[in-house]
Amino acid sequence: MSKSGEVEVHVPDNMMQNWAKGSRIRQATIVIGDQHSAIFEPCVQTHLDHARTWGYPTHILKHDLSGKAGWVKLVLEKSLHVLSLLVSEMAKASHERADWIVWFDADTIILNNNIPWLMFLPRQDSFSDIHFVACRDWTYLNYGVFFVRVNEWSINFLTQVATFPQSRPDIKTSEDVDTDAMLWVLDQAENKDHVVYQPRSWYNGYDLGDRGKSEIHEGDMQVHLVGVDSERRKEAAVHWWLSQLEKSPPKMNVPLEASGYPEKVQEFWEVLGTAKELLQQSQQRSHKSRLDLYKVKDAEEELQNFIHFAAFDMEGIITAMVTLQQAHDDAELQIAQDHQSSMAAAIALNDAHLTS
């Protein structure tokens, strides 16, 4: 471990070996204050163990950048911490840079060391326009785990998020400023095509705390203690999950090939790719044939919304594709019928003219 200012950097011995295989990932989190450290450092340790397996350097911010303390003030520093890493990486030669930075909240626990972060990212030869990968829940966005590509778009994006309170004082936000700022920036037209939301159960399943429920199943990669609403309960939850890891490591550490992840992730990217291709073809067909039928436009908008905001709902996105194709079939049938009716009317008019 090395330390630069108030950031601890843990670099595993196998980093370069794994980077040579294409796993060029850095990960980051924040742990600030003695009270938080006592609860969350065991959680972060599971990430360090995972990082040693897969060769990920880990950057842990240990200092309150704003100097104001308090969780509400600290959440905005998540964007600042990741932004600083992005700037640092972009200052390097291209062959020395990470490709992605993974953020994880300190109240997440790695349960299955056999699942690499690389599993969830788009292949290098596809989806080069996707720069931000995250999950959504009933609050629209959970910012506890996300992936951001190392490039200029990401720097611009997180700069807007980190400076949002100052640059957009006209926009009202809740106490969760970071999430509100990110949602607003992501919703801008120039950013929508660069974001994808994956199934949250893959790596951001919740321990729902007070409700006595958990979304976690055997072999899942990670649990997020987002539903545990007090430090005492969170400490108890951390102890419980770590005890499960100690009691039965094989039960939790399901091999990658038996976890179901490879099949599910491959299907996700295939469905998303097909949806994007179909939408592009539809828009080209509409423009070429000058189709302006409301069913086609509505179906295109529905599919576009699934791609932008709900790609994790694969059943929904497949249904939207079928609806769009049917709308085109109906539109083209209507055009053919209208053309046939026009021809028949023209023939009848001509016949009437001749007989007169």
From TrEMBL:
Q: Does the keyword Transferase apply?
A: yes
An annotated GO cellular component: Golgi membrane
Single GO MF annotation: glycosyltransferase activity
* Isomerase is among the record's keywords: no
Q: GO BP, one example? A: protein N-linked glycosylation
One family name in Pfam for this protein:
Glyco_transf_34
InterPro entries under this entry?
Glyco_trans_34, Nucleotide-diphossugar_trans
Q: Which UniProt keywords apply?
A: Glycosyltransferase, Transferase
Q: Which family does it belong to?
A: Belongs to the glycosyltransferase 34 family.
List the protein's name: Uncharacterized protein
